[in-house]
Amino acid sequence: MVTDRAPLEYVLHAAGPAASPTLRLAWALLALTIVVAIIVTGLLIGALVRRRSRVAHRQLAVDAGGMRWVWIGTGLSTIGLFGALIYMLMTLESVAMPASKPRLVVDVTAYDWWWKIDYPAPSGLAIATQPDKPDASQRPALPGATGTAPHTVTTANELHIPVGEPVQIILHSADVIHAFWVPQLAGKTQAIPGVTNEQWIQADHPGIYRGQCTQFCGEQHAHMAFEVIAQPRAAFDAWLHAQSMPAGASDRATNPAAASNPAPASADADGSSWQAGQKLFGERCAACHTIRGTDAAGVQGPDLTHLNSRETIAAGTLINNEANQLEWITHAQQIKPDALMPSIALDTDDAQALMAYLRRLR
After folding, report:
1. The total number of structural domains that make up the chain
2. Full domain range(s) for residue 354
3. Do 114 and 92 fall into the same domain?
4. Phi-psi category of 129—alpha, beta or left, where left has phi over 0 and alpha has psi -120 to 50?
5. Tens digits of residue pLDDT in 234-262
6. Interior/surface letters 35-54, b for 16+ CB within 10 angstroms, e for the rest
7. In terms of domains, do 124 and 224 share one?
8. CA–CA dist 58, 354 (Å, integer)
9. What is the pTM of this model?
10. Nearest by Cα to 10 from 162, 217, 186
11. Are residues 132 and 72 in the same domain?
């Protein structure tokens, strides 16, 4: 699997048809710039070496043909700039629409400082809502938040797409202006409050491609990354099906052994009661986070139903593992100051119970 991890990798390689024309344009403009710089430098050196002959005081020098170079330079500049303009317009036209109509449409909502991603649910599959609660489309949202319709699958900071197919991205913002950019797959598109923008991306090869907010949006702008994971269609369909299930159900669907031998209901493998962790989550986390299949129905923060299926947490700030999850929970304001996620003080027993519960969100 190809992984875009190297700094400035996008300068050398494009991974999709929406990015390749832009990469060629960038190299063409760079070449034009270098040629212009070389010509200007050469003329400057020539002017310094070939000085005009001295003339008497208060006497005008005879033109030695210098204006000819001015006219030549003006003409060449006009031709070069006009040619660059035409090439840019042709490039914009080539990336405006994909070659075929996208089969997949994904809603992406930018928040300070993370990304909410909504997929249409697999055909014929109803998405579980919280018991004895109205579905997310009917719940009143917290200020700046957007709810999740019952026919969508919600995740965060990780955009999965099928390889070789165009995917339409519908962009929204819940707070300030952001910009959605996956440099190896497409150009930048802004997410503006109250405005819906659209973009399309396509990956030609399986891989993980880094995305980033490129519009300054506050103190943690640099820590607002995401990943695009391109997979073969069958693997993508399996992933989407698993993500559409309530917490814990995806393991039983994809692992028959787990279904026939469920974990003990009273305690996790380390002896910590995950039920106590679930109760603690409901008391201290559920106002902001959703876990489908439970009473947790917050919409201000990322949906955590399948937390452990993701590679990173905190919008690409930390690798997703148990140690970093606990570090994020207890020191969020040290890791990402001014984020809406507070630092939560936990004693040892509460930390063990909460982690035992989060461990089950696969």
Report:
1. 3
2. 256-358
3. no
4. beta
5. 999 999 999 998 887 655 444 443 334 44
6. eeeeeeeeeeeeeeeeeeee
7. yes
8. 89
9. 0.79
10. 186
11. no
